[in-house]
Automatic annotation (TrEMBL):
<dbReference type="InterPro" id="IPR006145">
    <property type="entry name" value="PsdUridine_synth_RsuA/RluA"/>
</dbReference>
<dbReference type="GO" id="GO:0001522">
    <property type="term" value="P:pseudouridine synthesis"/>
</dbReference>
<dbReference type="GO" id="GO:0009982">
    <property type="term" value="F:pseudouridine synthase activity"/>
</dbReference>
<dbReference type="Pfam" id="PF13812">
    <property type="entry name" value="PPR_3"/>
</dbReference>
<dbReference type="InterPro" id="IPR011990">
    <property type="entry name" value="TPR-like_helical_dom_sf"/>
</dbReference>
<dbReference type="Pfam" id="PF00849">
    <property type="entry name" value="PseudoU_synth_2"/>
</dbReference>
<dbReference type="InterPro" id="IPR020103">
    <property type="entry name" value="PsdUridine_synth_cat_dom_sf"/>
</dbReference>
<protein>
    <recommendedName>
        <fullName>Pseudouridine synthase RsuA/RluA-like domain-containing protein</fullName>
    </recommendedName>
</protein>
<feature type="repeat" description="PPR">
    <location>
        <begin position="159"/>
        <end position="193"/>
    </location>
</feature>
<keyword id="KW-0677">Repeat</keyword>
<feature type="repeat" description="PPR">
    <location>
        <begin position="407"/>
        <end position="441"/>
    </location>
</feature>
<dbReference type="GO" id="GO:0003723">
    <property type="term" value="F:RNA binding"/>
</dbReference>
<dbReference type="InterPro" id="IPR002885">
    <property type="entry name" value="PPR_rpt"/>
</dbReference>
<dbReference type="Pfam" id="PF01535">
    <property type="entry name" value="PPR"/>
</dbReference>
<feature type="domain" description="Pseudouridine synthase RsuA/RluA-like">
    <location>
        <begin position="531"/>
        <end position="690"/>
    </location>
</feature>
Length: 755
């Protein structure tokens, strides 16, 4: 379609002039901009509208071109001009205009076109599909589902394209149940899903990895044998990639890797999207070595790592900052340019590893290179400052000078630096700054000031935080409740602390559906709580997971306290979901130091005194993540002035001495009753080792060889009892006798008792 520019009539221009001065109508309309007026459009269309009346296909060509150019404003005005000139408007015209809106995500315009009375009889399945796509592009997945339902009311039968477009929109909401419902509806309407259908449905599963894997199995079962290998690869690969991403988002790295290898057995060649998602899944449980292996495996399928691939590997580094630095420098060796995400991930690794100097060096490298710092980069950097609040302020001011708008995470990091640096007043003043800058606090914002108040014993200040949280409609969680209750207990007494805790109950929603059945592990049950006997040589997480699998359907068990892998004894579990009244109630008691626990342990070294002698260890403990024996990260604690307060009381119950095994004349083996007043990681083990009396069988903090008790089969540490207050305010006490293996050790030691 051509139009003669600047010639009022064709007779006034020579044929040569007409050839040189003709322009497509759609190009002229494009020059009018994204929002032309009706007069401008009508002026352009005036010479061609008569021919459109005779041949509506010419209008279809122009409207289709405007749709490709993403010009819904011009397309809408063209449609209006056609109606005003009584030109035929058919379903192809309406579909093209809706398609133009869809390509721009203008779902409101698309839906309004469907509802216009003068166009009500025109929309066909193509038009409805275009409107659904508009909702998808605009992120309005609920409206896409609504349009699919309205199609039948408009006597338009949805086809497979309609369902595929709706499923594609559903991935924005990650509503796997809705996706499965749409598949069932397709079956009811006898529509055979294709590979696009499965790919969209799997993407809609979000983090529901089990549903995603089930759909992959259905996709394989529905494979069309007549399809060539190339067609199968291009159609099925998005579904596999979406399933791998679902596993990654839910922390199921084993399943993600399994799907990656399954692609090869299904005649699919993984692409970079496949590998990137699989590598990213390796950040769970410290599987960085596997991530490196996957990176090196790219060449086997003819792929080369890109920046996004290395970014996934950097995320898998976790707190391993030396590896993150090596990964960043390895990008340059492969001629891969790091971006802002690359540097930010490496800085975050330094932050997790408490390496603030390395983080600052990376930041300056980023500024000198092609990458520009972002708010996320600054947030990670400020977080590394820890107690160095002056440095945190420096980078905060630098951030403002670069016109980078701080967000709530920025303020949280800065408030945390103030609080940890004993600058409580500055932390509170920053809360006022947030309000003036219209930055809304979140659940994390008030925790560092509360911890600082707890450290300083400022009970009035910690109480003042509560109305600030409520003003922003934030429900105080167990961390704040524990800080406040602990401060009140230390300053005003235990009764006052419990009174405050009871007042918070009205802010927490109870979970009334969970229940636990009796079993050999169950020691005692109470309102909202169950005490179980955890055996040695199993993690708390794995043990609780086994209980969940055997519990009635709908039962929620929450962990509020943990026992180490080699430790046995009483383990309290909350019968309620995370964030419920039950969980917050008990977790607050632990955080406030209101729970009384007693352990039995066996230690060796110089004598602590006669039977009945009591003592206390008051040494701060710093916990960090270090490399474990199998390449994963494990927690280790050490006595450090930079750590958190930790108090342990002990009493000598029994003493043993056998000269043929002891390493020094004054050495003996002591059976102790130990009561930790705080709950730091490995607290009893580290405190006793710091006294030169490590626990028997402790090969991490104690003697790795030449122990005085070689017949002890494991770490001699057992949680004997726990006492707290249940959700109804009644005392709850549960005890567990020493396990048989440890009883046997005491019996063998009996003949060497000295008291």
């Amino acid at each position: 379609m051509a139009y003669i520019v600047d010639c009022p009539s064709t007779s006034s221009c020579s044929p040569g002039q007409r050839k040189l001065r003709t322009t497509k109508v759609e190009d002229l309309l494009e020059r009018l901009g994204r929002h032309p007026s009706s007069e401008q459009v009508l002026r352009v269309l005036e010479p061609v509208l008569p021919s459109w009346v005779e041949n509506p296909k010419k209008a279809t060509v122009v409207l289709s071109a405007l749709a490709k150019k993403k010009l819904p404003g011009a397309a809408t005005q063209v449609l209006a001009a056609m109606l005003s000139q009584q030109a035929e408007v058919n379903s192809f015209h309406v579909s093209s205009v809706i398609s133009a809106a869809g390509r721009c995500g203008d779902w409101a315009l698309a839906m309004s076109l469907l509802q216009r009375p003068e166009l009500a009889a025109q929309p066909t399945e193509i038009a409805w599909n275009a409107a659904i796509t508009a909702c998808d592009t605009g992120g309005e997945w609920q409206r896409a589902v609504l349009l699919l339902s309205q199609m039948q009311l408009a006597r338009v039968s949805p086809g497979i394209v309609s369902f595929n477009a709706t499923l594609s929109a559903c991935k924005k909401g990650s509503d796997w149940q809705l996706a499965l419902g749409l598949l069932r509806r397709m079956a009811a309407e006898r529509l055979q899903p294709d590979m696009v259908t499965f790919g969209a449905a799997i993407a809609a599963c979000g983090s529901s990895w089990q549903s995603a894997i089930d759909l992959v199995s259905q996709m394989l079962a529905a494979k069309l044998h007549q399809e060539s290998a190339h067609v199968w690869d291009s159609r099925a690969k998005p579904g596999y990639n979406a399933a791998i991403s679902a596993c990654e988002r839910s922390g199921q790295w084993q399943s993600a890797i399994g799907l990656l290898f399954e692609m090869g057995s299904s005649w699919l060649v993984p692409d970079l999207v496949s590998f990137n998602a699989a590598i990213l899944s390796c950040r769970e449980e410290g599987q960085w070595q596997l991530a490196v292996h996957l990176l090196n495996a790219l060449s086997a399928v003819g792929l080369f790592p890109e920046t996004s691939t290395f970014n996934a590997l950097l995320a898998a580094c976790g707190a391993r900052w030396p590896m993150a630095l090596a990964c960043l420098h390895g990008m340059q060796a492969r001629a891969v340019v790091p971006d802002t995400i690359s540097f930010t991930a490496a800085i975050a690794a330094c932050e997790k590893g408490s390496e603030w100097l390395a983080a600052m060096k990376l930041f300056y490298e980023m500024e000198e290179g092609v990458a520009e710092p972002s708010v996320v980069s600054y947030n990670a950097l400020i977080n590394t400052c820890d107690v160095k609040w002056q440095t945190a302020i420096h980078f905060f001011e630098r951030m403002l000078s670069q016109e980078i708008q701080p967000d709530v995470i920025t303020y949280n990091a800065l408030i945390g630096a103030f609080a940890r640096g004993s600058e409580r007043a500055l932390a509170f003043s920053l809360l006022t700054t947030m309000r003036s800058e219209h930055v809304s606090p979140d659940d994390v914002t008030f925790i560092p000031p509360a911890l600082a108040c707890q450290q300083a014993g400022a009970w009035q200040d910690v109480m003042a935080i509560l109305p600030l949280m409520l003003r922003h409609r934030l429900v105080p969680d167990a961390v704040y409740a524990g800080c406040a209750t602990s401060t009140l207990r230390a300053c005003k007494g235990e009764d006052y602390a419990f009174a405050f805790l009871r007042n918070l109950r009205s802010l927490w929603e109870p979970d009334g559906e969970s229940r636990i059945s009796d079993g050999p592990e169950v020691l005692r049950k109470g309102p909202g709580i169950v005490a179980v006997l955890k055996p040695a040589h199993v993690t708390t997480q794995d043990f609780v997971e086994s209980l969940r699998q055997r519990a009635p359907v709908g039962t929620a068990l929450s962990i509020v306290s943990r026992l180490d892998y080699p430790t046995s004894g009483v383990l309290p579990l909350v019968v309620g979901a995370e964030g419920s009244l039950q969980t917050n109630w008990f977790r607050s008691q632990f955080a406030a130091g209101l729970v009384r626990k007693e352990y039995y342990c066996l230690c060796e070294g110089p004598s602590l005194g006669e039977v009945g002698v009591r003592g206390e260890v008051d040494m701060p403990l710093l916990t960090s993540e270090v490399e474990g024996g199998e390449g994963g990260l494990v927690s280790r604690s050490e006595v450090s002035e930079y750590g958190r307060q930790a108090f342990t009381e002990y009493e000598v119950r029994r003493r043993f001495r056998f000269p043929e095994l002891q390493q020094a004349p004054e050495d003996e083996v002591m059976f102790l009753s130990v009561r930790p007043r705080t709950g730091r990681t490995h607290q009893i083990r580290v405190h006793m080792a710091s006294l030169g009396r490590p626990l028997v069988g402790d090969f991490t903090y104690g003697k790795r060889s030449e122990t005085s008790v070689p017949f002890c089969p494991r770490l001699f540490l057992h949680c004997h009892s726990i006492q707290l207050v249940d959700v109804e305010g009644a005392p709850f006490l549960s005890k567990a006798d020493i396990t048989e293996d440890l009883q046997a050790v005491l019996q063998n030691l009996h003949r060497w008792a000295i008291d």
